[in-house]
Every structure is written in C-alpha cells, then in structure tokens.
Amino acid sequence: MFFDNWAGIGRVLIVTLVAYLALILLLKFFGKRTLAKMTAFDFVVTVALGSILANIALSKNTVFLEGITALVVLIGAQYLISSFCVRSKKFEGWIKPEPTLLLYRGQFLQEAMRSERITEADILLGIRQRGHSSIENVEAVVLESDGSFNTILNGAASASDATLKNVRNYVLENQKAAPESSSQS
C-alpha cells in the first residue's frame, strides 16, 4: 500500500525525531566509546541500535517507551561491558580480539596470516594505503582488533617494543627470540 493516512505519517515523523534525539542523548551520556572504531562486538551493538530505532519509528506495535527502554538497555549493557574491559585484561581479551603481527622486519608471518585469513596482497595494500613505497621501509604490520592495518616504520625500533607489547606473535628483542618464523606455502 502506498498511503494509509496522514496520522500514520505524522506518527512516524514525531516518533522518529524523538527516538533519534533520545538515541543521540543516550550516546552522549554514555560516552565516545559507545560507537568508537568498531570491533565485531561494537558492530553488533551498532546494528542492534539501528534495528531498534527503525522498529520504534515504523512499527505501530512498538510502544515508544518500550523502544526507548530497549535503547537504554542495549547502550547500558555496552557501557558496562566496556567498563569491565577497562578493569579486567582477561575480560577484555574475551570480548575484544587482540592485535596480530603479520609482518616483521621484512618477513611475512605465514601462520598468523593463515589464522587471520590475510594474504600478502592485503598486507601490501595496507602498506600502500599508509603511503609507504617499499616493504623495506616497514618494521612491522599489525592487524588491529578493529580490522585495520597499522604500520611501524624502520627506525622506530625503540618504539616497537612499547607499541607492540600487546600484539600477538611479537617477542621482545631482549628475550633472545625472534617472532614466529615465516614458512613457505
């Protein structure tokens, strides 16, 4: 059906605007982290928020306050989980994937690449997107928990110990061990 009545259009206009404003206020109240650069967990929350907002706006069967309650519960749960992540590294490790070292000192870390389903072409693309012209200029490439690639340039070796300490496959130089060796496929 193309058109039912003006009352339905008016309801959608008013309820959508009020629900949108409520969502903005809730996001502001619960902080920037609520919709920060997204991990899989954050993506699920964002999709659910969109679904709830659409349901509030378009479903005549959803009572407005019930919809707002659903938004509060979802954002509140996300806030609590983020708070637990800050307080407990173990809990954070369960919720958020750890970053993974994929390339170190010119060596592709094949086992890590296989487990993350990343190809050499993906890594080279990440290097080019950062504006680097050569793999020789790159100390390390890390697949971050949000799915993005980060590169550390050569000459930043002193910084790499500090910035790579929470990255899977990285071993500190002073531990006399190299990171996972590259194997041929």
What helical percentage do the residues reach?
40-55%
> Main β-sheet: number of strands, strand sense, barrel status?
4 strands, antiparallel
Summing up helix and strand content along with how strands pair, one would put the structural category as alpha+beta
Biggest sheet strand line-up: 2-1-3-4
Q: What are the low-pLDDT stretches, counting only 5+ consecutive residues below 50?
A: 173-185
Number of helices: 7
Per the principal axes of the C-alpha atoms, what is the gross shape? Answer: elongated
Kindly provide the radius of gyration, computed on alpha-carbon positions and rounded to a whole number of angstroms: 23 Å
Q: Give the number of domains.
A: 2
Order of helices and strands: HHHHEEHHEEH
Secondary structure: number of strands: 4
What gap, in angstroms, lies between the N and C termini?
Answer: 58 Å
Mean pLDDT comes to 81
Approximate strand percentage: 5-15%
GO cellular component, one term: plasma membrane
InterPro entries: DUF421, UPF0702_alpha/beta_dom_sf, YetF_N
Main location: membrane
Keywords: Cell membrane, Membrane, Transmembrane, Transmembrane helix
